[in-house]
Amino acid sequence: MSRFEPNLRIPGPTALPPSVREAGGRQMVNHRGDEFRAMLRRVEAGMKPYFGTEHEVILLTCAGTGALEAAVVNVLSPGDPVLSVSMGAFGDRFAKVAEVYGAAVTRLEVEWGEAAVASDVRVAAAAIPGLRAVLLTHNETSTGVTNRIGELAAAIREVAPDALLLVDAISALGAVPFAMDEWGLDLVVTGSQKAWMAAPGMAMAAVGPRAWAAAESARMPRFYLDLKRHRDSAVNGETPWTPAVAVLYQIDEGLRLMQAEGDGVFARHEACANMVRAGLRALGFALLAGDSVASRTVTAARVPEGLDWKSFNAEVKARGLVLAGGQGKLKGKIFRVGHLGSVTTDDVLAAIGVLEEVAILQGLEVQPGVAVTAAQRALVATRTRQAVPA
Ligand SMILES: *Cc1c(COP(=O)(O)O)cnc(C)c1O
Asked: Is pTM beyond 0.90 here?
């Protein structure tokens, strides 16, 4: 036993801070009562700065995938020409949702491990007559790559100014700065169990005026995920259906913690990401994403030739460290370290320490201490840089 609680280093669900756990255990309230109304309004308002929006933030009771579905069905009609820019498993899922509901989806496939290139996206968008929407992934959780959404949005606008920009920002929103309104995005979604330090069960969708206008004529079927119904209820501080009240308690408390930490939230995620990358590299693991496109919330590393991943991971797990495997075509080829939400630099140092110990026990040529030292150096270098005003 090396820990009394697992070091849950997967990219969601993320570990809950003690006060968030306690919030989830609170007694129920009337979801048509004043206490709930105040909480819903507080959470909606509290979310806006993280989206970088002045527009409505809608709270949905569903998994993140439900919010992707909401994004599609509320603004599109069957047959609408849609461009999907996918760089991994979650981008593919977004495209699939649009296809299932009858959109005419053209796929721009980005190599897994790379970010979308603005000029490629511009060319792909220009080639689709009457382009209605573009599906973008902010942070591809299956590869640990973050797109420069602002640049992609600007490139699309040049050739398709009327196309709606729908963004899956599920796994990094809250952990990194984001500017929905400045970038001209129309619909952006996230989920409670990623950077928000809450349990799974709710998703948040920020909806801009062009998306609301599109919803007036969109003909894809919808009922439970109808955003207009949610907006109408939200005016009264309510949700149209019974929400996941306990999860909302947790989001409320998670937001309170984030607000108290201020910009420290972003700095902490940057430090943790740099530590993970330095530590894994020191162990000889090749990282999937290059530094310039690396995610600050999840890191993917290749399983080296000759390393028995199953036995490696079993030893890691026995020491209380929980990692994520690869998804889709990367299954068995990579592993992923989640560093989002309530993650601390201590959690990351401990994780790197475990990986180092197991790597040595499994026969990798590693000097004891190199990975922990590399992570610690990355921490100090990042903190030093952050302390210098830009
Ligand atoms: C987690 C995740 C999803 C899916 O969320 P669920 O809650 O599992 O449905 C979608 N997109 C991205 C980028 C994610 O990280």
From this structure: yes
